[in-house]
Amino acid sequence: MSSFPTTRLRRLRYNSGMRRLLQKTHLRPDHLILPLFVRSGKNIRQPIPSMPGQYQLSLDELAKEIQQIKTYGLGGVILFGIPEEKDELGSDSYSDDGIIQRAIATVKEADPDMFVCTDVCLCEYTDHGHCGFLHEKNGRYEVDNDRTLVLLQKQVLSHARAGVDLLAPSGMMDGMIGAIRSELDKNNFSQLPVMSYAVKYHSAFYGPFRQAAESAPQQGDRCSYQMDYTTAPELALREVELDLAEGADLIMIKPAMAYLDIISLVKQKFPSVPLAAYNVSGEYSLIQAAAANGWVDQKQLVFESLTAIHRAGAEIILTYWAKEVAHWLDH
Ligand code: PBG
Q1: What is the C-alpha separation between 1 and 27, in angstroms, rounded?
Q2: Do the beta carbons of residue 200 and residue 227 sit within 8 Å?
Q3: Which sequence spans correspond to the domains of the chain?
Q4: 289-328 pLDDT, tens digit each
Q5: What is the model's pTM?
Q6: CATH says 26-330 is which class?
Q7: 251 forms bridges with which residues in the sheet?
Q8: Antiparallel, parallel or unpaired: β 134-137 and 140-143
Q9: Residues of the chain whose pLDDT is less than 50?
């Protein structure tokens, strides 16, 4: 290898033509999934204070949103529902006329070609705000893993009947993927894919989302089911391994920006598994807030962040900026 002064690496970035020629990591709208929050009511497009630029949409407004983004070429949308009534079992989550089931139908009516993914979890639907069924044990409330699986099975079946394209279970319960896969297969939905939130860390980056989805736990936290970010990265590999063994088709890692090492590790160990990363609410709101203050350039930071996530190994990115990126790429 020659060295300076024969070699001058700056030649490789001397002008824009050379820089363009060497671009390797490209963002494309068809690899982006836009999260949308859906609630009951009519004519509601309610701004989410903790996530400037994001809204809770009633079904009629959801239809308008889908009409608007139809031509953006996005990979799809992921729907989060805010039910009118919450209860102990999160029963709206598996009701055939629940908010999310109606939202799936609304999207498909507005654009039959829109790829629809749903978050499969209980936290938006339970009155206590936890991701599973709560039971009392030794004077303390805790999430009953196996009873939760039964509720998740009911939930995925109702999403399947409503016409969903991809199910994304996010509750971090043990055996969740296997339970969902077997229920789908038993009911003639063996073609329906599952994208597991396999590696989901307990993170303060979800803060703004809890206001958006009205899903903050009333008591306690999610430490006993979401992963601890101080544990060995290899534990993430076990989560992935198990979910694949249980039948997961795609794997998701969440959050994204502070976990690029985990994305890269999982991609290296499982190169053939389609990998997604969720660029979560806190990552969004931090940049929105700084940009609103004029401290950072929003567009440049969004491109830099999403490119890093993609370069680390995520083919698919769930991001609240999906529309903006599609628009910027087109102009
Ligand atoms: C539901 C769920 C959450 C997010 C996605 N699905 C909240 C949580 O786990 O606390 C967070 C997404 C975001 O912050 O943008 N379990």
Answers
A1: 33
A2: yes
A3: 26-330
A4: 999 999 999 999 999 999 999 999 999 999 999 999 999 9
A5: 0.97
A6: alpha beta
A7: 196, 275
A8: antiparallel
A9: none
